Amino acid sequence: MTRDSIINKRLIGLFLLGFLLFNYPFVSLFNLPVFVLGFPLLYAYLFAAWAVYILLIVLIIHSRPRGES
Amino acid sequence: MLSAETIIFASLCYLGLLFAAAYFGDKSAAAGRSIINSPYVYALSLAVYCTAWTFYGSVGRAVQGGPGFLTIYLGPTLTFTLGWFVLRKMLRISRIHRITSIADFIASRYGKSVILGGVVSVIAVLGIVPYISLQLKAISTSFLLLTRYPGYFMPQHAGRVPFFEDTAFYVALVMAAFAVLFGTRKVEATERHEGIVAAVALESLVKLVAFLAVGLFVTYGIYNGFDDLFTQARSQPELAAMFTIGDQPGAYTSWTVLVLLSMLAILLLPRQFQVAVIENVSEEHLKKAIWLFPLYMLAINLFVMPVACAGMLEFAGQAVDPDTFVLILPLAHHQAQLTLLVFIGGMSAATGMVIVETIALSTMISNNIVMPLLLHLPALKMAQRRDFGAWLVAIRHAAIVVTILLGYFYFHFTAEFYPLVAIGLVSFAGVAQFAPSLLGGLFWKGGSKAGALCGLTAGFLIWLYTLVLPPLIDAGLLPQAFITEGPWGLQFLRPFQLFGLKGFDHVSHGVFWSLLLNSAAYVGVSLFSRPSALEHSQATMFVDVFRFTGDTDEAPLWRGTARIPDLKSLLERFLGPARTAEALAQYANQHTIDWERSLAADPGFVTYVEKLLAGAVGSASARVVVASVVKEEPLGIREVMGILDETRQAITYSRQLMKTSAELRAANERLKELDRLKDEFLSTVSHELRTPLTSIQSLAEILRDYPDTDEQQKQKFLGIMIKEIQRLARLINQVLNFQKIESGRMQWQIGSVDLRKVIEDAVAASSQLVTNKQIRLQVDLPDAVPAIIGDRDQLIQAMVNLISNAVKFCEEKTGVIAIALARRGDTLRVSVQDNGVGISAADQRVIFEQFRQVATAGRGRPPGSGLGLTITRRIIEFHGGRISVESEPGQGATFTFEIPLQTPLAAQGGS
Asked: Which of residues 34-63 of A touch B (CB under 8 A)?
């Protein structure tokens, strides 16, 4: 398996995760008039999940698969 | 506080900066130092996605619908995760096929279809012009707000300002000049517009900085951070709706539809296709862009909610349009410079979009609408014109000016009755209609031109009906009953509840029906249509793009005759002599062609020329133009499939090569074996010849040197000599016979043959051999057998061979040979059985092969040429029969042959 296809598969996996996180019904879990640390819950959840999601892309793209020097 | 002069001066300075950036970008590119060759610039240029709609409109949407505005940015984040998978494929295809726009992409995929390119272009223009209009309105509105503050909070009627007093009009003119100057420098639309990209990247930076600045000012300048801001906002019950999506029916449906819509828009908006695909320098830049661009979107949205909250708190009860909070908040707090920065930020968001979108649309209009029309009007003789390149550029210039002015006048004249707020999403829904054809065409070879055309048309009509038409009712152009009762009172055709569907908001409703029918028509019609040869080949080259490696070495799907001078003059007309010479030199470099010598163009060269032209006029028009000088012979589907098969075969080539070399090695082994056998045969034969010759010679010498040898002795010697000479003659006959049979020069004497007689004659001929060794010979013949057609003498020869072979292996005195003839159904079966040493299983397999002699333990090689059994087998096979042997070592051997009663010679023999 080439490095490209490993990255491809991981990114597709991440995409599926993201599609789940940013859609119903996941979004509905946080759709409450509640504040955490002063932030509206849904707003806080979306930005946090978004930031983590971007971080995961960075990790997938720029990590080296094992065995590669 | 801010005079109109200050604002105009700042705006002019900013626009001057853009021109400088673009000029610098083009200059660097010309000098070979591309400043846009960087993933960061690439990511920033992608941020042209964030328009004035983002800059001003997000706050307004946040006030109305809470976090729902984020869907527009979450979708592209998701799509870009698949960028390495989808976008890279689009990049590769566009580079290889020299694609100039999204319309060109779809047209090229479906057999370089002129009509498909035209349809896509028309949808794009209709969907995007209002969106351009929205940008210009934002500039106009923001300018009015600043100059008339605080007397002008609700600039609802910007359209009423005469256009010569409207800033947006002048900005539109400057944008047109900018796009003309930097967007159409070269005829080839595939060439990157480095200056434009540099300017757009700069604009993206400016708008981000401006928005972050106002966000920071609001959060930390007006309030004491997020905590303070949100605590105050919580205390206002009327703001509670801003913090959730709400639980009204359809809320989540809208959410999901908007995520999907923006996922598609980021790929399909003409400006996104332009910056992401056409202007891309290197596929490697995608790697960083797929996280940098989402990061940019996250950053620019970070302060939308705080600004929305602050605006609602600040202007509670006042009639202030939330879309203007970004500008009004710093203004109300007397932050002149910050306000100016925000104004410039908003302008950069608007102008960036206008520039790129206009260039993308002008390419589509010129290449996919105007050009095909001109080429199809024979009276114009367009393809024969010498100055075609100049025409092309002029058409593009005109298209840019017309598009921008259309955008301007659209908002100028419709602003009063057509709400611009929804236009962003309606545009998204419009371009989303490209999704089935483009994405389907990218991964599904079965998608056909007819399917794409039907899908696009169906989607486009539903889009018009459900999203574009209804707002006209508010303007009084259509009766209200059209919405509530449906046209002609047909309830199921109500544009907001098509076929009775309820529980969707208007945009979701329109998107659902248009994309559903679009996809269904695309797939359905594709499954039932028969694509042309060209469609087939284009489909394969798009879907399997990563399997075709080089730029030009794809299967040349072209057959016909063309002259190089014709093609050359064609190129000169479109690209100019300098660029043509350069392109031809490049081709000659790669393919070693002597332009002086060769006149006829090969398919590879014609393809190359067509691609060059496709870069200028689009694939569909390029095909038409090239066809004007090429005498093309229609390429049948069978041939295309053949060529594709060849390509496929090339992939398994190495495997076949290995197989072939193995076969060759085996054949070589076999040849070596035959060579060895031949040597053996020669030595055997020469030995066999020399033995009798030597004995004849020595006996003859005795007779000559000792004339007084007694008579009895003499007689004996002469008898031996005669026997040896007969043996020699037999041997030589055998070799000659074999040679004749093998070379097919044997003269067969065909006639009616009685096998009983054959066996009797053979036994008689061999009787001397048998009696010499004192072997018992038993012959078992039936009373009568049917005669067969064959060569009597040769059959006797075959029998003699078998008998002498049996004699050879039998022990003297104890040997017994049994010959039997019997009829078995339609065949006659003859067996020759001996009780000799027998033949091992391994030897049985090779015994009938030429030159084979079986060495037996203790006896060495038997005498003879080793040809006897081979000749026998040839004779039997000639008569349509088979010969076999059964034996076990020490148990003797049985040779059996069967000859059919109806030999293949029967027909010959009858004549």
From this structure: 35, 37-43, 46-47, 50-51, 53-54, 57-58, 61-62
**Same domain, residue pair B173 and B280:** yes
- Report the residue of B81, B92, B227, B508 to disrupt the A interface, i.e. the one with the largest count of A CBs within 10 Å: B81
Residue A22 lies in a domain: yes
**Do B193 and B59 share a structural domain?**
yes
Residue B853 and residue B711 share a domain = no
Chain B environment of A24 (Cβ under 8 Å)? 252-253, 255-256
Domain assignment of residue A48, given as a range: 3-62
Distance CA B338, CA B299 (A): 19
- Binary contact (A42, B294; C-beta < 8 A): no
Q: How many domains does chain B have?
A: 4
B513 found inside a domain: no
B394 within a domain of the structure (yes/no): yes
Domain around B680: 665-726
Helix (H, G, I), strand (E, B) or coil at B885: strand
B674: closest CA among B848, B869, B842, B849? B849
Alpha-carbon distance A36 to nearest alpha carbon in chain B (angstroms): 10
CB < 8 Å to B305, chain A: 40, 43
In angstroms, the CA B12 to CA B343 distance is 12
Cα B348 to chain centroid, rounded? 40
Inter-chain CB proximity B245 and A31 less than 8 Å: yes
Same domain, B212 and B341: yes
CATH number of the CATH domain containing B13: 1.20.1730.10
Closest chain B residue to the Cα of A14, Cα to Cα: B81
Domain termination residue (choose one: B417, B447, B474): B417
Its ipTM equals 0.94
Of B33, B364, B367, the closest CA to residue B194 belongs to B33
Q: Model pTM?
A: 0.68
| Shared-domain flag, residues B576 and B715 | no
d(CA B698, CA B700): 5
- Tokens matching residue B514: 């248009």
Answer whether residue B269 is part of any domain.
yes
pLDDT in tens, B724-762: 888 888 788 877 877 777 777 777 888 888 989 999 988
State the best of A20, A28, A36, A43 to mutate against chain B, taking most chain B CBs within 10 Å: A43
The total number of structural domains in chain A stands at 1
CB pairs under 8 A between A and B: 97
Residue B784, domain member (yes or no): yes
Residue A68 lies in a domain: no
Determine the Cα–Cα distance for residues B168 and B379; give it in Å rounded to an integer.
Answer: 41
- Closest residue in A to B252 (Cα–Cα): A24
Interface contact flag, B231 A51, Cβ < 8 Å = no
Nearest to B81 among A39, A57, A62 (CB): A57
For the stretch B771-830, pLDDT in tens is 888 888 888 888 888 888 888 888 888 898 888 888 888 888 888 999 999 888 888 999
Angle at B671 between CA B665 and CA B673, to 5 degrees: 105
